[in-house]
Amino acid sequence: MTPAHGGPVVDVHAHVFPRISRAESRLLQDDEGPWLRSDGADGPGRGMMMRGSREYRPVRRTLWDPAARVADLDRLGVDVQVLSSTPLLFGYDADAGRAADWCRMVNSRLLEFGSYAPQRLAALCQVPLQDTEAACAMVTEAMGQGFHGVHIGNHIGERDLDDGAVVEFLTHCAHENAPVLVHPWDMPGGPRVERYMLQWLVGMAAETHLTLLSMMLSGAFERLPRSLRLLFAHGGGSFPYLVGRADNAWRRRDLVRADSPHPPSAYTDRFSVDSAVFDQRALEHLVQVMGAEQVLLGSDHPFPLGEAEIGGLVRESALTDAEKAAVLGGNAVRFFGLVRHRTGQEAMR
Prior knowledge:
alpha/beta, TIM Barrel, 5-stranded parallel β-sheet, 12 helices, globular, ACMSD, zinc, Amidohydro-rel, decarboxylase
């Protein structure tokens, strides 16, 4: 389907939970590994993300079935979707050796999912980020296998992305020309956030804000190559709306600017964000803060909290036609190195 602006529509934030049995989940953790119940026990076209014997989240067929996914993309007018694993599959708290084997299995399933329609589905690998050497080796291996980048969580236990080992990993990604999608995950728990999905509604935005400020104020962006392509999911969390507060603190407090030669707003050209903010005014502000060239269409498809009509928010916004074209697909073509196929849909190199 061809959008009104004539350019491609590329959704850069979309998840897959490939078919993984409970027996296979024990490759990662003996009794608590993640797996997918997709045998029809939850109803037609329904399944359940599991963690050991515990139900984690109900899901629908498009999460694991590539034919159903492509049919959804046809219905929604999406030319290409960039696929990443469900964060539950990261495995950062597991033994590094087991996590490496696990990531290879997950990655093979992601490639298999994408092979159903290689002109429509572009996969990102995942890596055992708790082991820098293994993670770097896996990125190199994955880029040679046809992956279009790597998907990571915004922290590894108590280590954020400004940690020296993670900076080493990100530098390696830059050298391998591997784009990096950063997704918030493993939000703090407790009674105050256990109701109403507040971990997702508040915690996710706070996690990304925390990660971005940690990278800025620690000087991590000063140590990272400018060639690194970083993309933060969920519109950069709450950072774009509170950057003024952070700049004010940097100007007024030595403690805040101790390790950063520039205020946080000076680093907004070092990363991109997706458009998953679900409000026109929020999207328009996001574009003002980041620049239209650094906002990419993202839906969080096919989860219920994702954008139901992918790209609808962008099309209905007050952005200019050129800005809409950039956000809907042009930026993603550049960011992920996609090329136009002769049919007019996007294809991957």
